[in-house]
Design brief:
It contains five helices and five strands; from the N terminus they run E-H-E-H-E-H-H-E-E-H. With 185 residues, the protein is an alpha+beta fold. Helix 3 runs antiparallel to helix 4. The chain folds into two domains: 116 residues, no CATH class; 68 residues.
Length: 185
């Protein structure tokens, strides 16, 4: 995968070549991506409140709940329907795997509290199911990550960099920008 830098206006208004950002096939379909940019994305040093015990935990929850959100960059990119369907399927599978993992883990803990051999065997089996579901969730997260375009705003805030795009879209963008009157940073 490649990365390309374009003028923010071109990204926001999708004035990009009609080439799928992930698969590199011609497409007229588009998908809007939003991503936090700039400062204010995290809660910084406030994580040290975890060391203060329950009062610190409460303070951390309150800080996280009431902090101001950072800026969000929203761009529209060419993105074919087949790729979109793969991404949605991976997101659904990941969500189901996480739910299965959580359910199996809770039931495994409850079964382990029963002090019988059968209950402990059930707990061990459910723990194995939870581990398998965790592996499945991680695998689906990797797929979702590969099907997602990552954005970075250049310091001048006039340009945006797309990461994880198909080389064919990169070539089409380079062709378009080489024919225009402005140059990339």
């Amino acid at each position: 995968m490649a990365s390309a830098t374009v003028i923010v206006d071109d990204a926001v208004l999708c004035r990009l070549p009609p080439v799928c950002a992930i698969d590199g096939v011609p497409t007229d379909d588009r998908l809007t991506f939003s991503q936090p940019v700039g400062s204010g994305n995290g809660i910084g040093i406030a994580w040290l409140l975890l060391l203060a015990g329950p009062p610190g935990w409460l303070g951390l929850v309150l800080i996280a709940a009431f902090r101001q959100g950072g800026e969000t960059l929203t761009v529209t990119l060419p993105y074919c329907e087949a790729t979109y369907r793969r991404r949605v399927a991976a997101e659904h599978t990941r969500r189901n795997a996480v739910l299965m993992m959580a359910g199996a883990a809770v039931v495994a803990v409850v079964a382990a509290l029963q002090r019988t051999t059968d209950a402990r065997s059930l707990a061990l089996g459910l723990a194995a199911v939870a581990c398998g579901a965790l592996i499945g969730a991680i695998a689906q997260s990797v797929i979702v990550h590969r099907l997602t375009i990552h954005l970075a705003l250049v310091a001048s805030r006039r340009w945006v960099t797309f990461m994880n795009i198909h080389p064919d879209l990169l070539a089409a963008i380079q062709d378009r920008y080489s024919d225009s009157h402005f140059s990339t940073p």
